[in-house]
Amino acid sequence: MIEYAGHLPGLNREALRWREVSYSAWGESATIALPELDEAQAAALCDHVRSNARARLKRMDTARIVAAIDAAIARLLDREHPLRRKAEHLLPIITGYDRETVRLGLTSYLKTFRRPQLLRFLAEDFANPAMLDGFQPTPKGGYLRAHGPELLLHVWAGNVPALSLWSLICGLLVKAGTIGKLASAEPLTAGWFAGLIAEIDPELGECLAITWWKGGEAPAEPIFLRAADTVMAYGGNDTLTALRAKLPITTRFLPHGHKIGFGVVAREALDSRRAPALARLAAHDAARYEQQGCYSPQMLFVERGGRVSPAEFARHVAQELAALAHRHPRRTLSPAESASITAWRSAQEMGALKGAAELLGEPTDSWSVAHVETPEDLSPTGLNRTLKLVSVDSLDEIPALVAPYRNFLQTAGIAAAPERLFQLAEQFAEVGVTRIAPFGRMAAPEAGWHHDGRFSLLDLVTLTEIEHGAEAAAEGFAPYVD
Amino acid sequence: MTQAEIIDALLAFIALPDASDAEFEAMALKVFAYQFRNNEPYKRFCLQRGRTPLSVRRWRDIPAVPITAFKDLTLSCSPPEAAERVFMTSGTTQGIRGRSYHPTLAVWSRSMLVNFRERFMRGRERIRMGILFPDEAALPNSSLACYLSLARRECGTSDSEVFIGSSGLDLDGLLSALEQAEKSGEPYALLGASYSFAPVLDALAATGRRFALPEGSLILDTGGFKGQSRELGLDEFYDGLSLALGVPRSSCINMYGMTELSSQLYDDGNAICPSVKSGPHWIRSRVVDPLTGTDLPEGERGVIVHHDLAHFNCVSAILTEDAGEIVPGGFRLLGRVDGEASKGCSVAVAEFLAAARG
User: Kind and range of the H or E element at A245?
Assistant: First the structure.
C-alpha cells in the first residue's frame, strides 16, 4: 500500500507526478509517495493558498482557528482514530524509532496544542491577542493590528515525528496562508494534520498546503521561494545559507539551525536518593529521539562535592541507558551514523589511555557513556545515545566551557537548588543559552516556548499602527464635528 | 626480540617471493608481541580491549588502533627523539598532526622499493620521471616526498625532474619535458599527488594542448584531492589524464598510502573505477563493521583495517577512516567514512568542527 504525503488543495492528485520512496525498520516497510510539482502546479498552488488566505483566513476570528486546531489535535490524541492508528503504525517504520517511543512521544507532544495551550501561545507573544482580529488600543495611545504573512513557507528538516506541527500551528494562529515543505525523513504528520483541518473546517483547509520538492534541484523551488512573504526554515547551517541566498531581500527569513543541548548537575542533587532518579531522567532525555533534537543533551557537567561523585553518577547514567535499551531499543543506524559513534568512541578511548577519561559501554551496546575528570569545552558526541559527563569543581566553571559555542547553544537541563538555578541561568543567558529545562523534559518544550530565543508568533507578524494623532485628526473630519 | 632482530626478520620476510597465510600469521604475531612489549600506549590500548600476545592467536585479532591515535599518542617502540625520520600527516585536527616514528628507514625503504618495482615499474629497471610534488629536502616530514624521491633515485633516469618547487608548479618546464618525451619515443612516467594533476589538466584544457606520450608511459597519482584543488570524480580525472597526455587509463595507476603505514597499496590501472587495490605479502587488509570491529563478508561496505608488518616501530594494525569492500584480489576504496550530519536538528561533530574552524 502506498501512502500519499501532503495536502494540495486545488490540485488534482491524478495530474501530479509522485516520487515513491521506501522506508523500512523493525522488519516492516512502507512506501510513501511524495508530490513533485512542476512550475505551473507550484504557481497554481501558491495562488490558491494566497488568494484563499486573503479572502477567507484573514477574515476569520482567531477563536475559530484555535477551535479547528484543537479539534484536529483531539483526533490525533484519540488512540482509536484511524489517523492516529496510521501514525503509530507508519512513523516507527519511517523514522526508525521504536513503537513505544513514537506513541509516548506523540501523545506528550500533541498535548502542547490543545485549546488552553494554544491560548498560552497567543498570550505569550501578544499583550492583547485580539490585535490579530482587529485594531486594539495600546498603552501609549493609538491602536495596533497584527497581520500574519499572506504566504508563509515552512521548510522542515529532520526526522523527529510531528516536529513540523510546531511552526505549522504557529503560522495558522497568525492567519498565515501556509505552504509547508516536508522533510523526507518524516513526510507524513504535517499532511495528515492539514487533512484533518480541511475536514473540520473546509474553508481553513483551502488556506494551507503541504508539499515536497528536492531541495536545491526541483524546478518548482524558485516559484515557492519567490512567492513566499516569509520563510521559516530548519536545517544545518550550510542548507540554511544556501536557502537564504536564493530568497529575495524583501522576504523575511526565519532560520533555525542545528543546535546542541547540555545538562548541569549540581552537587546538591547528588545524594544516594536523588542521583539514581536524576540519572534516569537524564538517560531518558538522551534516548528520546536518539539525541536528534536540538534540545537533546549531548554533554552533562557534573559538580564535585556531592555525596555521589561524578564518576558514580556516570555509572548511574550508564545503567539507566542500559535499562532503556531494553524498553526502547535503539533504531538501526546507517553506516555513517555508526561511523560517527565509532569515531567518538575512539577519541574517548584515546583519552582514556592518557588517563583522562573513562568509557563505559561496549562497542556492541546501543549506548555509550564517557566520563572525564578534567573540565573540557562543550562538544558534540556521536549522537544516538552517546553521552559525555564532565566533572567540574564548581558550577561557576561551566559558562566559560560553553561560551565559545554561543551560536550553537540552546537548551540546558539544570538540576540545582533555586538560588543556584537563577544564578546559573543568569550566566547562561549571557553566553547565549535560550532555554532552561528540568531533566526529563529537555526533549519536550512547553507550549509557547520561545524557540531559539525568538517569538513563535510575534516574529511572523507585521504590526500596523494607528497613531494617537491620526485618530485625533480624524475627529476633525467627522460629520458630527461642531 | 630486539629491534635489530625484528628488523632482520622483516627484511627477510619482505624478501620472500610470497608468503602463505601461516607465514604471515607467524610474523604478525611476532611483530604484535614486539609492539605490545615496547609501545606503552599501545599496550594499554590492547589491555583495555582485553588482548595480549598470550590471548591473541590470529592476526585478525590483533587490536587495530584508530588512525586518530597517531595524533593523540606517541606510538613508538623506540625513543621518539632518536628517530631517523618522523613522518607527519598533512591534515591537521586543531593544529595536531599524526606522526609515525622511524628509528631507521631501512624497512620502510625496502618495503617501498620492492613493491614499487613490482607494481609500477613492472620489470623495467629505470624510466624517465616527472614528479609533481616537492622533494624530500623541501618536505622532510612528508612520507610522500620521501616515497617520490626514493622512486626517482632508484628507478628514475638521470634526466628525471621535479616540477614543483618553492615557487609552485613549473608548468613550462613540465610542458617542455612532455614535448621531449613525446618526440623521443621513450616511455615517460608522471608521478605526484592527485591534486597536483588538477592544475596541469586545467592548464592544458585552457590552451587546448594535448600530448601523446610514447607507448609504455605511466601515470601514478595518490592521495586524492584533499581540498587542495577542485574535487574531480574518478572517471572525470582519469579521462582527463588519458585525453591530455595520451596515456590509457589502464596505465594510470593509483597508489594508496598513508603516513601511518610503511607500505603502499596499488591498483593495476584505472580502466574501471573504483579500481581493486592490493598490497604486497607483508600487508593484509580487512573490511570491518566500524562499531563492532568484526569482519564483513566480501562485497559488503565497511571500514578498512590494514595490518602492515613493515610498520614495526609504531603500530602495525590500524583502523582507517576509509570506506571499502573486500573483492576478489583485494579491496575497493569507496571514499572516506564521514560521520553523518544528524538526521534531526542537533549539531553533529562534523558540522561543529567545520564551524569552529570558521
Answer: helix A237-245
Question: What spatial distance separates the first Cα and last Cα of chain B, rounded to whole Å?
Answer: 49
Distance CA B146, CA B211 (A): 29
User: What would you report as the CA-atom Rg of chain A, rounded to the nearest whole angstrom?
Assistant: 24
pLDDT single digits (tens) A455-473: 999 999 999 999 999 999 9
Residue B298 burial (C-beta neighbours within 10 Å; 0-12, 13-18, 19+): exposed
- Does the reported pTM lie above 0.80? yes
SS3 of residue B130 by DSSP: strand
Question: How far apart are alpha carbons A394 and B196 in whole angstroms?
Answer: 52
Which of A163, A346, A383 comes nearest B68 by C-beta? A346
> Which residues of chain A make contact with B292, given a CB cutoff of 8 A?
363-364
- State the DSSP H helix or E strand holding residue B106, giving kind and residue range, or none if neither: helix B106-116
Which of B49, B343, B357 is the mutation pick for testing A, counting most A CBs within 10 A? B343
Per residue in A46-92, pLDDT tens? 999 999 999 999 999 999 999 999 999 999 999 999 999 999 999 99
Task: Identify the three-state secondary structure at position A330.
Answer: coil
| Placement of cell 488512540 in the chain | A79
* Long-range contacts, B143-149 (Cβ 8 Å, 24+): B143/B87, B143/B100, B143/B257, B143/B258, B143/B259, B144/B193, B144/B222, B144/B223, B144/B257, B146/B85, B146/B87, B146/B105, B146/B108, B147/B112, B147/B257, B147/B264, B148/B191, B148/B192
Q: Please identify which residue in the block is written with the cell numbers 562497542.
A: A363
